[in-house]
Amino acid sequence: MSGAGDEDKKPIDQTVHINLKVKGQDGNEVFFRIKRSTQLRKLMNAYCERQSVELSSIAFLFDGRRLRGEQTPDELEMEDGDEIDAMLHQTGGGFCNLMGAEIFVWA
Q1: Which residue range or ranges hold the Ubiquitin-like domain (predicted)?
Q2: Considering only CA atoms, which of 7, 102, 79, 84 is closest in space to residue 42?
Q3: E strand spans, 3-88
Q4: Among 47, 73, 92, 93, which one is most buried in terms of CB atoms within 10 A?
Q5: What confidence tens digit (pLDDT) does each residue in 48-57 have?
Q6: What is the pLDDT of residue 50?
Q7: Using 50, 70 and 90 to split pLDDT, how confident is the model at 100?
Q8: How many helices (H) and strands (E) does the chain have?
Q9: Do residues 87 and 25 lie in contact, with contact meaning Cβ atoms separated by under 8 Å?
């Protein structure tokens, strides 16, 4: 006879671990399985090592927000199969100085 609480129990493997996908700008995907309580720094370092890039040259984003190494999947409420974007870190850009420029508009 099975107890009523048995239905609510998840296999321990699913509750402790999470599968995450890290997708690079080139479309390359690397899959990781980590504990939900593990700091993401471990995943970030492993990704950079596999891709032969420096950690300081990559920005990791989840839902459009930059990740910090001390954050955990639990803290960010990540779900199994979630995707992290790995973007080459860009310093500067996005500024255009139009002072003194003549602008012509044809109607």
Answers
A1: 16-93
A2: 84
A3: 17-24, 29-35, 58-62, 65-66, 83-88
A4: 73
A5: 999 999 999 9
A6: 96
A7: low
A8: 2, 5
A9: yes
CA torsion 103→95→53→32, rounded to 10°? -100
Cβ-contact 32, 94 below 8 angstroms = no
Number of residues that this document lists for the chain? 107
> Residues near 56 by Cβ (< 8 Å), separated by ≥ 6?
89
Apex CA 50: angle with CA 54 and CA 46, to 5°?
Answer: 75
* Inter-residue contact 86 to 58 (CB < 8 Å): yes
Amino acid in the structure at residue 40: L
Do the beta carbons of residue 34 and residue 17 sit within 8 Å? yes
As a whole number of angstroms, the longest Cα–Cα distance in the chain is: 84
